């Protein structure tokens, strides 16, 4: 871990500690003007803490990419003394390596090395662009379009997860498949059945057929998403001092991430995935159309069976404006009812109940007749990923003398168990 990341984490910890002090300073007898001032300072502190956390995440991703870039070749033979044999002089630095080296220097607050500046000034050559090819599109050699390298594919998946928690396999159940078409998800709900007691000695065991197990299934379809074509001029491709390839790939991945996450959250299942918000069962309807109480949160949590609440993937989900509203809730003595867990891992504590949560900006904000919070076992929400996320470039007469770039993905999603995930719905206006 770099010194900069360590300093940022320490700074974020201090900001959160100060924010807690602002919370604790507000009492029942605190003047309204002072309470308002403290709340404003708290909101500003949490916004700054979130921004630092986002920056830490980007720096950590950068360090991981640099470690992969600088890692030695594990296939290189070693002698008894552990030294490599037949080691050639290091190859000249290419544009991509120079671009990452420049980012690392900026992150560390250092000046860009002279050799790195020289490579960046020379620009991204057509020879390097040709060297990035991995696999021909659909076997049509004359088309000239290629898939991105494997390492970029992995980075795109990380970007998608960052822009939408519904794509994160640490939250939902992600099912990678190689083919398309409808995938059946069989299920069984036998929770309403029990065995019977045979009370009379010698009575035969009943065989009425009424206790047969009933199976059902949910269909998980797939849908194609794309970013449309972007044209990159030859002047920009070869003359820019920044990595245009990496920048465009990242932006297209973010576009895919936003759209996929939105449909996996709020999609109605009609020509698109059935989102977790639309597909979840109603757990509780709030009394108000514009506010939520702590008791209503507890009621929502307990509307989900205890067996689901014990799942490692049981959590709540809402957007950031709802999180702010929850943070501001107080009891009759002015104490904040919902507190961040001391480990800072994104958990809300309401009395004796601790609830992990994910912030999802695709969730609706608190308003009449909408459902701003869902809670339950997120492992029962299934995301289908067909193949990989693809960013492709092509050179033909349509884009000449530049290139065309686009991204696409095939995705599906649905709730596999309606009892596992419940939503809190606001009252009608």
Structure notes:
The chain is α+β, with helices and mostly antiparallel strands and 429 residues long. Among the domains are: 28 residues; 267 residues, Alpha-Beta Complex (phage-related protein like fold). Helices cover 37% and strands 20% of the residues. The protein has twelve helices and 15 strands. The strands form three sheets. Strands 7-15-12-8-11-10-9 form a seven-stranded mixed beta sheet. Helix 1 packs antiparallel against helix 2 and helix 2 packs antiparallel against helix 3. The longest helix has 39 residues. The two termini are 51 Å apart.
List the helices and strands and how they pair.
Blueprint: H1 3-25, H2 32-70, H3 95-108, H4 114-122, H5 126-131, E1 146-147, H6 150-163, E2 173-177, E3 183-188, E4 215-220, E5 223-226, E6 230-232, H7 234-239, H8 244-266, H9 276-279, E7 281-285, H10 294-302, H11 306-309, E8 314-318, H12 320-327, E9 338-340, E10 347-350, E11 353-359, E12 373-377, E13 381-394, E14 403-415, E15 421-425
Gist of the model:
The protein is of the alpha+beta class and 429 residues long. It has helices at 3-25, 32-70, 95-108, 114-122, 126-131, 150-163, 234-239, 244-266, 276-279, 294-302, 306-309, 320-327, and strands at 146-147, 173-177, 183-188, 215-220, 223-226, 230-232, 281-285, 314-318, 338-340, 347-350, 353-359, 373-377, 381-394, 403-415, 421-425. The longest helix has 39 residues, at 32-70.
List its traits.
429 residues; single chain; alpha+beta; globular; 12 helices; phage-related protein like fold
């Amino acid at each position: 871990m770099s010194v900069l990341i360590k300093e940022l984490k320490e700074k974020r910890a201090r900001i959160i500690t100060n924010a807690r002090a602002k919370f604790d300073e507000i009492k029942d007898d605190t003047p309204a003007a002072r309470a308002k001032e403290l709340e404003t300072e708290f909101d500003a502190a949490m916004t700054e803490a979130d921004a630092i956390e986002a920056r830490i995440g980007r720096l950590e991703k950068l360090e991981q990419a640099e470690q992969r870039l600088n890692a030695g070749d594990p296939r290189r033979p070693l002698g008894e003394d552990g030294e490599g044999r037949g080691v050639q002089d290091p190859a000249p630095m290419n544009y991509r390596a120079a671009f990452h080296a420049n980012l690392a220097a900026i992150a560390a607050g250092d000046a860009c090395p002279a050799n790195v500046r020289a490579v960046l000034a020379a620009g991204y050559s057509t020879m390097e662009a040709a060297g990035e090819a991995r696999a021909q599109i659909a076997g049509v050699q004359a088309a000239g379009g290629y898939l991105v390298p494997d390492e970029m594919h992995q980075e795109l998946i990380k970007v998608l997860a960052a822009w939408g928690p519904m794509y994160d396999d640490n939250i939902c159940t992600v099912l990678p498949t190689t083919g398309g078409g409808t995938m059946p998800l069989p299920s069984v709900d036998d929770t309403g059945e029990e065995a019977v007691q045979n009370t009379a000695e010698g009575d035969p065991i009943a065989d009425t057929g009424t206790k047969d197990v009933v199976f059902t299934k949910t269909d998980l379809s797939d849908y194609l998403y794309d970013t449309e074509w972007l044209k990159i001029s030859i002047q920009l491709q070869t003359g820019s001092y920044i990595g245009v390839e990496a920048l465009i790939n990242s932006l297209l991945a973010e576009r895919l991430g936003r759209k996929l996450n939105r449909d996996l959250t709020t999609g109605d299942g009609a020509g698109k995935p059935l989102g977790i918000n639309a597909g979840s069962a109603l757990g509780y309807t709030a009394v108000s159309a514009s506010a939520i109480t702590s008791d209503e949160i507890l009621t929502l949590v307990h509307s989900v069976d205890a067996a689901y609440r014990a799942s490692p993937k049981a959590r709540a989900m809402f957007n950031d404006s709802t999180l702010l509203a929850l943070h501001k809730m107080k009891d009759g003595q002015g104490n904040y009812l919902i507190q961040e867990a001391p480990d800072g891992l994104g958990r809300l504590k309401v009395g004796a109940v601790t609830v992990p949560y994910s912030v999802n900006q695709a969730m609706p904000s608190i308003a009449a007749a909408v459902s701003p919070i869902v809670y339950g076992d997120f492992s029962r929400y299934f995301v289908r990923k067909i193949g990989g996320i693809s960013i492709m470039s092509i050179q033909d007469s349509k884009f000449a003398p530049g290139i065309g770039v686009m991204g696409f993905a095939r995705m599906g999603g649905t709730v596999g168990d309606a009892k596992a995930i419940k939503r809190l719905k606001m009252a009608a206006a």
